[in-house]
Amino acid sequence: QLQLVESGGGLVQPGGSLRLSCAASGFTLDFYAIGWFRQAPGKEREGVSCISNTGGSTNYADSVKGRFTISRDNAANMVYLQMNSLKPEDTAVYYCAADRIGLYCDLKWYDYEHWGQGTQVTVSS
User: Fold this and answer.
1) How far apart are CA 34 and CA 56, in angstroms?
2) Most buried among 70, 89, 93, 103, using CB within 10 Å?
3) How does DSSP classify residue 89?
4) Does residue 2 register a pLDDT over 90?
5) Is 78 helix (H, G, I), strand (E, B) or coil?
């Protein structure tokens, strides 16, 4: 059974950092592009960052450029999102998702076939 599980969320003060992890089971991530998305209450799902299957291509939403870094370890079947200089507006449930067309990636949620259950990130003093 294909499964993605996010972890690493929590409560952090503004200016702090968190690292989210996305673990895959039941399939290998080698061929998949992986995206991170987030959704805050009352708001639409937003693409945050994505990485191609080899890690050679990444994309970031303008709102997180320079603060977030996506990376992957295909040997470990893991993808990470390092989030620095967090702001209250980063508060949301964060999801990782897998797109079997892995040579490139985009931030369109409807291109992704497999989704995790999400992890809550709250940025507040």
Assistant:
1) 12
2) 70
3) G
4) no
5) strand
User: Do 110 and 52 touch, CB atoms closer than 8 A?
Assistant: no
Predicted local distance difference test score (pLDDT) of residue 37: 98
Quick: pLDDT tens for 35-93: 999 999 999 999 999 999 999 999 999 999 999 999 999 999 999 999 999 999 999 99
Identify the three-state secondary structure at position 29: helix
What are the distances in angstroms from CA 121 to CA 7, 31, 68, 85? Answer: 10, 28, 14, 13
Alpha-carbon separation of residue 46 from 54, 55, 87, 100 (angstroms): 23, 21, 16, 20
Residue 19 CB contacts under 8 Å (≥ 6 apart), including other chains: 8, 80, 81, 82, 83
Distance (Å) of CA 39 to CA 12, 99, 100: 17, 19, 22
